[in-house]
Amino acid sequence: MARLSRAARVKPLRLTSRGASSPKAARAKPLALGGLSQFLGYSIRQAQLWIFREFSRRLASFEISPAQFSVLCVIDANPGVNQLAVAALLSIERAGLGRLVDHLEGRGLVRRTASTINRRYYELHLTEAGAALLARVRLAATESDKALRSKIGPRAYKELQRALSIFVDDA
Fold it and tell me: Which CATH topology does 36-170 take?
């Protein structure tokens, strides 16, 4: 009888949609964080993931992403702004912003025109359709913010907003 190598003897894992290899594994003790929960950065990242899931869920019916919403808000507040300025403000790579603006322009939400001051730049404007969509999406964004306030409570919400404002002010 031929002896099988260790690799040949190991049963292949069959993953379920939840990532468990078997019903027994599904009942296994949850993984420990190893002290991660003591780091504020980890907690902020978990909060950010919750917020983005909630926000994305509310934006899904508009077929718009949080990044697209941010770009529309900045263009609305700064008609004629150039793409590089938007990229810098929102910390989006230039190429990524170019694709994002291409998408918004393709949907008829943004109009891009050559700058009269510097021909290397494009000026961005919302179209009527873009302004109308942004108004509806802002309502959804407000509802998302209310969900966060409800989850952590109004007092903690205000304190968190105040504490994190230093990072917004630095942008």
Answer: Arc Repressor Mutant, subunit A (1.10.10)
